[in-house]
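#onboarding

Welcome to the new folks! Below is a worked example of what a typical request in this channel looks like: someone posts a single protein sequence, and someone else replies with the predicted structure as tokens. Don't worry about understanding the tokens yet, we'll cover that in week two.

Example request:
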Amino acid sequence: QVQLVESGGGLVQAGGSLRLSCVASGTGFSIRAMAWYRQAPGKQRELVAGITSGGDTNYADSVKGRFTFSRDNAKKMAYLQMNSLKPDDSGVYYCYAEIYRWPASRDYWGQGTQVTVSS
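Example response:
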């Protein structure tokens, strides 16, 4: 069984930084794509940053220049370095992965980690 577990959320003042981590646990699988999504109260879940199976890194316009997505394939981990945080960045951040486990790929989600940015 494959699981995604996030960590690193918390409360921070505007202008501060946080680093989120996500680890994929289990055996017999490979990761094709990974990403971070977030969901604020009353809003839809949105893509924040991610790496596609082709290796392209994408960022939401609202976080470009402030957030950095990285991935450690050997450790099966993904990170989101968030700098210059704004109150609008608050929400639950979810780790996503497209994982191949024979004979097919499927989507996996973590349980989410809360990020709160105070003004």
